[in-house]
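Researcher: Structure for this, please.
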Amino acid sequence: MKLINKRNFISIVCIFFTLITCGKLLYERALNFTDRYYTDNIFTILGFSVLITLILSLHFYLQKFPFWLVIIAQYALTVGIVFLAIFIHGRFSTNAPTAYWDMFVSITIPFLIGALVYYICFFVQIKRANKVLEKLNSEE
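Model: Predicted structure, token format:
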């Protein structure tokens, strides 16, 4: 069952982006924090939203593998791409000493929330499909 497809990819990215941005703004408001790099961070959040949605959409093609292995692989791929981007960025400019840790935390929280929502929706769809199948089987 494919939950993320070509038709709804952009809308899912937009929803994910909006939720992460609102969470970031509420967190900063609660701490009374002003972000000097607001524009850069917004585009980073957009990149995370696209990356996480794209990686979670690969689940459809990985259904033959164990569920826990797919989740671990999706998370490792996401973190690996982010760390590679930090490494490449560090070749052209100076990274903060805590850049890897900061990005690890910044990608882990949205990934876990996104994966949780995605897989809850996925299993709800499976449960619904099973009920339809049971109903069809009982009518025969």
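Researcher: Any notable elements?
Model: The chain has a mean pLDDT of 85. Residues 9-135 form one domain.
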